[in-house]
Amino acid sequence: MPGMYAILCRPMRWLAVSLVCIVLPAAAACGTTAQEPAAAPDNVVINLPIANRAVALTREDLRVAQGDTVTMNITADEAGELHLHGYNLTVPVSPETPGALTFEADAAGAFGLNFHVFAADGAAGDSHGGHDHNGGTSPELIASAAPVSVRISADVEDNGGVNVRIMADGWRWAPELVDQEHTPGAGHGHIYVDGEKIARVYGSDYHIAELAPGRHGIRVTLNTNNHGELTYNGQKVEAITTVNVPDVGQAHNEHGHGDNNQGGQAERAIIAEVRLGNLEVYP
Ligand SMILES: [Cu+2]
Fold first, then answer.
1. How many whole angstroms separate alpha carbon 12 and alpha carbon 192?
2. Could you tell me the distance, in angstroms and rounded to a whole number, from the CA of residue 242 to the centre of ligand 1?
3. Which residue of 6, 142, 186, 244 is 20 to 30 Å from 237, comparing CA positions?
4. Distances in Å between the alpha carbon of 182 and those of 144, 177, 197?
5. Distance (Å) from CA 180 to ligand 1 centroid
6. Which positions ≥6 away from 265 have C-beta within 8 Å?
7. Domain with CATH 2.60.40.10 in the chain
8. pTM of the predicted model, to two decimals?
9. Is 4 helix (H, G, I), strand (E, B) or coil?
């Protein structure tokens, strides 16, 4: 009766345990699960092999039960860090050094898993490659014949708000033209936090109301009136920076895990935000 075993064996248990449950005929082989039907906490291992800025996992692979102890083993083909939103855990990973993260999934919900790609040593900002890292529809790329560029800086306020200053050259902010035809040298911007677009920007200052404690990547693109992404000389006209929002006690609905960034470790520029999926924690 495979169906019975499927019920007895929670889906996120280790593969080894699942195999035991399938292979052995006795229900007792399912161990603790069989004796504790009220879903005793499991040790769940999730392997996250990041390649080409993606991970080949299904939603089911990223599903755990509240109270489970979760270990994520992360490998990557380029240097970066894995960031689990909500729990606000970050772990560095590189092709030479796999990363591992163990935590108790004590809060239920869906928590974004992002991979922050670090700039290559000594070559900050190179090779974006033109992938779409967000899985969604990618804005049309529109080449600018004239030089256009953008830089950003970001300052964190005490309350977790972030002031972003956007310095665009060869560019006119044109909020009045939004949704109209492309006009060379004019338009608006899009602002992304940790790979997710949060708003349009229509001028040189943008305020982000509140970010959870931890590191966040902020990216701004310059966009045509019809929302295409501007390129110049084959490069997207965009700027990326990183902010570190301090943990201020119970604020921001965090769960008290704090921030496991290694103190004193040199900050590295994040050149891309890759959304890998959501960790789903079921109550
Ligand atoms: Cu737009």
1. 32
2. 22
3. 244
4. 11, 9, 21
5. 11
6. 92
7. 141-263
8. 0.46
9. helix
Place 219 in a pLDDT band, splitting at 50, 70 and 90.
very high
Closest CA to 256 of 148, 125, 103: 103
**pLDDT exceeds 70 at position 53:** yes
Q: Which residues surround ligand 1, an ion (CB under 5 A)?
A: 223, 227
Q: Measured in angstroms, how far is the CA atom of residue 123 from the centroid of ligand 1? A: 29
Cα–chain center distance at 57:
15
Q: Cite the DSSP H helix spans in the chain.
A: 2-8, 15-23, 32-35
Report the separation in Å between the CA atom of 207 and the middle of ligand 1, taken as the mean of its atom positions.
Answer: 17
Closest CA to 15 of 55, 50, 44, 38: 44
| Third-level CATH fold of 2-118 | Immunoglobulin-like (2.60.40)
Ligand 1 centroid from CA 202, angstroms: 10
CA distance 178 to 189: 10
**199 pLDDT higher than 50:** yes
Q: Percent of the chain, pLDDT > 90?
A: 44
Fold of 141-263: Immunoglobulin-like (2.60.40)
Residue positions counted in the chain: 283
For ligand 1, the distance from its centroid to the CA atom of residue 139, given in whole angstroms, is 9
pLDDT at 110: 86
130 contacts 234 by C-beta, under 8 angstroms = no
